[in-house]
Every structure is written in C-alpha cells, then in structure tokens.
Copper oxidase (Leisingera caerulea), 452 residues
Amino acid sequence: MMNRRQMLGAGAAGAALVSSQAWGKTANMGLPEAASMHSAATQPPLSPTTGPDYNPVVTLNGWTLPFRMNNGVKEFHLVAEPVERELADGMIAHLWGYNGQSTGPTIEAVEGDRVRIFVTNKLPEHTTVHWHGLILPSGMDGVAGLSHPGIPPGKTFVYEFDLIKSGTFMYHPHGDEMVQMAMGMMGMFIVHPKDPAFMPVDRDFLIMLNAFDIDPGSYVPRVMEMTDFNLWCWNSRIFPDIDPLVVNQGDRVRVRTGNLTMTNHPIHMHGYDFEVTCTDGGWVPESARWPEVSIDIPVGAMRAYEFDAVHPGDWAIHCHKSHHTMNAMGHDIPTFIGADKRKLTGQIRKLQPEYMPMGTAGMADMGEMSMPLPDNTVPMMAGWGPYGPLEMGGMFSVVKVREGIDANDYSDPGWYENPPGTQAYEWTGELPDFARAEDAQTRITPKPSAKG
Ligand SMILES: [Cu+2]
C-alpha cells in the first residue's frame, strides 16, 4: 500500500496537464505563475506536498489550483478572465472564469495555514473575490467599495489571511456580481482539518451548482435572466457529459455541494440514505445529524453529506426539480398529450415532408430521436445507459459503486452488471426466485462510519 505522499507520482500525471510554475523558497519571489487548465475532464486529486496530510478532494469536471510555499505562506494565483468552457462535448460557452475555466479551480489548504492569494484581473471591468464562509479580516472580504476598491482591469490585488477553521467554502466576485456570476465566475475553497483523523473520508467529491441561459446557436449567457435558465450545471458541465462519481465498495464518501444559482436544488441520491455532516457554517456535530435521501441546497449555501458505500451498483444522483434534469428547452410550449395531430400532420407534411408530430403520448420519444439541432446546443434529453436512453440532461450523474477500485482511480468502470435475480423483468407467467435482502447483506460488510 502506498501512502498519499508516495502516490504523488500518480497525482503528477494530472499536474502535468497544468502549465505549472517555478517553485521557489524566498519571500522576494515575483508573482507566482498562474496555472491554467484547458480541459473540462476531471483532473486527478492534487495530493499535499507540505504540512499535515489530507485526502485531497475531486472536483467533477474540474481541477485544483497548485500553490507554492513562500516563507511559510501558501501562495496561489487566480486570474479572472474570459474563458471558453465545454459545457458538454461539442458545446462551447463563452464565459468569464478563472485560470482558463469556469467554474474556477478548487483552492485547497489546511486549517492553520496562512494563504496569500494573488488575483489578476484580465476582465474588461473591475472585479473582486469574496471568500464565502471564511472567517477573515473585514478588509479581505472582497466586497467592492466596502472591503476595498474593485480590482481594475489589468491590475493584481493580494488577499492574505489565516485559515482559522476547516470546512467547505466558496469564492466568487462581489462587484457587478449579477453579471459576473451569470457569466460563470465561482469556485470552491476547501479547508481540511489540521488533524487528519477528524472526519476522514476515502472519497471527497465537489459539485458547484450553477446555471446559464444560453440561447441555442449562441455562445454568451444572457446575463439579465433572473429565473428562467436553460442550462443547469454541475461545475459548468451538463449531463450526459458530467463525469460519474466513481467509488470503491466500502469507501466512506463525502459529497460537498455548493449552490450559486438563483434557486434551490433538492439533490437526490439513489441507493443510499446519508447524513448531512457539514454546511458552509461548519461541521455538524454527530448528535445533530439526521438521515436524508434528498438534501435541499439553498441559494448561496453549501451542504456536505456522507455515506458508507456498501451497496454496489449504478445509482442516479440528480436535482429533483425535473426541469433541472433537462438541457436547453423552451418552457412556453403547449402540451399535446392526448391531442389528435393526425390531420395537422398531414397538412404540415405538404409543406415540410420530414415533419414529425411529437408530444401526443408524453415526451419520451425525444430521448431516442436525434433531430437536427441548431449549432452549439445539446439535446434536451440525452444520455444512453445499458438499457436505452436515460432521458436526462442538466443536473444528473451516476454514482458508480464497485468492488476493487484503486484508491486513486476515478476512471469510469462502465455499466453495472446486475447479479442474476436482482433486476426487474418482463412478466411472462413465470416467477423465478429473486435474491433476498438477507443474501445481499452477507455480500456486504459495512464499514463503521467515521466519527466526528
Ligand atoms: Cu435543481
């Protein structure tokens, strides 16, 4: 068994994709070179190279910002800039973000660290960075005009503070924030506990809920939209191109979910019950946790939940607002369920022979049909599973729990093969033996849950 530091070799494979910087030792170093990411693929976790050990987080379809040590201070360099983000394979959005991507890279540090974060503004207007949930001096809070002047285009400001508590936090602009957040500017800030034995988990996933309103065929979000967004994202990515959450059977798993959209999202995970263990206010004491299978993430808040991944399978995880598991769609379309469109179809086909009447028996046929789409958009319901179309888009992914997944392996293991007698089937008059829950229990050895 390798320990985490020995596994740095594995982490370095991902770090190589990051255009990295010179690592120095003195306090007189210049600005740290800003790492930049050009891929929307989930990057391997960035293992700690200094200070207390911790299990690094995995940002779905995202990455973690490298740092350098300067005389005991962890130095990061964020660059606020226009970016091109692949929201899905083949769909590009022209957004504003950080270091080449939206959402921005995850910042990861440890309770007790002093951090110095250089923020360079390459946007055409001023910006700031607000460190949501962190306890810090008032002048570091990043509210333009209140904490400090906005960072003018072309300038670099320095934020520096001590991380006095661990937990899950976020960062985003607090100057022209309606526009800048609608353009995709946001990221997560993880502070690990100084004591590695406090609330340990084997897998620690990050999901930032965000949303855009991008008309089919266009590239730039409509920033004035207040509620009627058409692309519901996790880390600026939509299903079917959100990566799965790959888990080794028996792992203790944490999912940290932040919400910087304009509405709440009830995140529902199949196959498990779980307990809410952290908010952006801090860790929830064990005596105050309660079981859930859906957790509502309020606007401007973070919720983390944990479970022991004892049940193998492919388990859906999604927002339970059914409009949020659809991609680009109009909402002002009449309902045709039960309507007889035969006469109308005949008339339209005289003008347009390929016309297909849709929606008279529900909309499931949308998932199977590949209709011509405008440039730069995605089907409303997409994604194929082993048994047909998933009829999902937007805020949806799959938790894939398997035996024998290596500690640092997050690659997609493919679809789950249901053991005989454990899958719904078409009734033809025979009733074969179904597996009993007691049999299933003997296959599962639950791990004692980590105590806080
Ligand atoms: Cu939602």
